Amino acid sequence: MEKALAGTILHVNEEGFMTDLSQWNEEIGKALAAESNIILTPRHWEVIHYLQDQYRKEIPLSIRKIGKSGVVDIKEFYALFPNAPLKTSAKIAGIPKPASCI
Amino acid sequence: MSDQNGEIKKMMIILSKATLENVYAAFVLANGARMEGIEAEMFFTFFGLEAIHKKKLEHLHIATVGNPAMHMPTLLGGLPGMESLATTMMKKEMEKIDMPEVHEFLDILKASGVKLWACKLAMDMFHYKKEDMYDDVDGVITVGDFYKQGSGTGTHMLFI
After folding, report:
1. Measured between alpha carbons, how far is B91 from B87 in angstroms, rounded to an integer?
2. I need a surface site. Which of A87, A90, B75, B132 has the fewest CB within 10 A?
3. What is the C-alpha separation between A10 and A6, in angstroms, rounded?
4. Annotated domain spans of chain A
5. pLDDT band at residue B3 using 50, 70 and 90 as cut-offs
6. Domain definitions of chain B by residue range
7. Does the beta-carbon distance from A101 to B32 stay under 8 Å?
């Protein structure tokens, strides 16, 4: 599927997750965050860059790993991305939806 | 149901057992709810209290007797040390799939905003005190209090 956002035609899946991280830039990140009613602060960006880094290293994401990342603790993670933090942050970061139960 | 399309807003999970497989099932369901943006509260009653009892929560076992999925003859499952062995093996596998230990899992649940309630009746029956329990337990409440916590549309209750 395709979706127009921040002046770009993005490749996305049926749930709106980007399927090509190379299309991502900070403007797109901001626009995706706005769709989830989130205004990105420097703390959000740190988390987003961490997620992208993990994705590039092919390390699967989980809430537990986020908590141990040293970037953010679980409580703050939920505060930064309320309502399904792992899914929401992954969507904003332009990476696939994490298939994690923990 | 119709006004909110059957959407799940809150999971109320009652844990009545202390076998590791049941404790983990309850924890994964509560955590999984939070990960999807669904509220979650847990009520620990009867043997389920052991999952939040400071001295007991690190020593929970899986059941080797009366558990057909163990594929082990009942007599063998009852031998001394068999539960410990099976538990050690299962814990190794769980670490591989990034499953935390019970105490760490409770920390994750709390940090994720899950409310943890101890059942007053069961606490009285086992002569447990609030200070015996995991520090971040939200309170010792009655079943009526727990139902009140679950009021509102889109709440589901689960008994484990």
Report:
1. 6
2. B75
3. 9
4. 2-93
5. low
6. 12-159
7. yes
